[in-house]
């Protein structure tokens, strides 16, 4: 008997048409590609110093056979204490990227307008599109600073969501207090402002705290933060959303999977919060290295955007995709940017001093070779 032909099942057209997320190479793939074991992984903005030693201690006491707490009660209580926000307004996620998805699922309807910055974070677009949104982008200025008037003009169109990552990924600058306040006064009551502060811990002391600025407004907002970057827990997947009100938090929580934050991630995040001193000292060391790499880049006559993050966005003056092989041959993974107008840019994470030296040498070789 011949098998009947399988009919292709209809797919959700929004999901079937999604652009891929540009996740880049992992260390094993890079090792295979260049045949060397000592890979400098500078494409994902992880913490080169690892994480607090309190995390390993906490993980050693874990019982993996029990389901994790779906409400993340202990973690949310610790965050509430740290931030001065009631736990009812905090939702923990499997990385803050899950919270981007949950916010979209909670708010976006087919045809909703969702706005974001370009160049920007791919998931702001992907998760909006997955829910049937129409996505519009606001460019950065030629000097790679935020274009505040253009952001305000977009807000006048009253999008359902405006995603703003400040500090910006991939560019690096953060909105100063005056710019942020101008933007906040332009947010309509119908618009949810999502301030993605994945790099909050790396900002200079004179930069505004988004949570504090938003708390004094009556707009609807979400602030996203993560344990992946400054706290060094990228592999465990834990981040969180702080919301303007408990109703919004309930909608975001309803849009996530029930046991989204696994037990290891929950205890690790609590332990990391308990050792802020480790995080702060690793940030101090990282900023020193960031200044050193930025100086070396400038000395080569290349320009990097001002950075309030743990990475630099550098115009290498040639197609960045084809420079990828050069860096890989030196055992270095960087992120070539692919958005239109930025094809000569790479985003490079600030690594350990040795990794940064290797990056500087490879960049010099590329630009003088
Ligand atoms: C890294 C990053 C995130 C996501 O981090 P998680 O690991 O999912 O917590 C979110 N937004 C921006 C802008 C980022 O750079």
From TrEMBL:
Claim: DNA damage is one of the keywords in the record: no
Gene name in the database record: hisC
EC number: 2.6.1.9
InterPro entries reported for this sequence: Aminotrans_II_pyridoxalP_BS, Aminotransferase_I/II_large, HisP_aminotrans, PyrdxlP-dep_Trfase, PyrdxlP-dep_Trfase_major, PyrdxlP-dep_Trfase_small
Reactions catalysed according to its record: L-histidinol phosphate + 2-oxoglutarate = 3-(imidazol-4-yl)-2-oxopropyl phosphate + L-glutamate
Subunit annotation: Homodimer.
Entry keyword annotation includes Cell membrane: no
Top-level taxon in the UniProt lineage: Bacteria
Pathway where it operates: Amino-acid biosynthesis; L-histidine biosynthesis; L-histidine from 5-phospho-alpha-D-ribose 1-diphosphate: step 7/9
Family: Belongs to the class-II pyridoxal-phosphate-dependent aminotransferase family. Histidinol-phosphate aminotransferase subfamily.
N6-(pyridoxal phosphate)lysine sites (modified residues): 229
Organism: Rhizobium esperanzae
Keyword tags: Amino-acid biosynthesis, Aminotransferase, Histidine biosynthesis, Pyridoxal phosphate, Transferase
Protein name, per record: Histidinol-phosphate aminotransferase
Residue stretches making up the Aminotransferase class I/classII large domain: 39-363
The protein's required cofactors: pyridoxal 5'-phosphate
GO annotation terms (biological process): L-histidine biosynthetic process
Record GO terms (molecular function): histidinol-phosphate transaminase activity; pyridoxal phosphate binding
